[in-house]
Amino acid sequence: MSDPQSRIDETVKGNDVVLFMKGSPLFPQCGFSSRAIAILEHCGVEFESVDVLQDQEVRQGIKQYSNWPTIPQLYVKGEFVGGSDIMMEMYESGELPELLEKKGVKVSAAD
Q1: pLDDT tens digit string along 61-103?
Q2: CA-CA to 3 of 20 to 30 Å: which in 47, 51, 95, 97?
Q3: pTM higher than 0.85
Q4: So what's the architecture of 4-102 in CATH?
């Protein structure tokens, strides 16, 4: 298997929206990951998720990849966006849906 940085890079660049999180979308393992999932679901965007609890190399590697110390981490079209606090601020201000649209990510109508 390839090194963690290569696997992370491949995942980030191979998907329009990727959330590195603790747990899965159906069973998040921390409140921050749960909030990140809720935000993405409210935006109506399809996304890939990576459970960092399943792979310690990825758990540590993603922090080096982004130079960001916490998880979850959101990437849109290969660009690091931030963690759940930044996601919440961007969602509340309308910046996150705007960013998704600007990057050409397909978004379904939100409730």
Answers
A1: 999 999 999 999 999 999 999 999 999 999 999 999 999 999 9
A2: 47
A3: yes
A4: 3-Layer(aba) Sandwich (3.40)
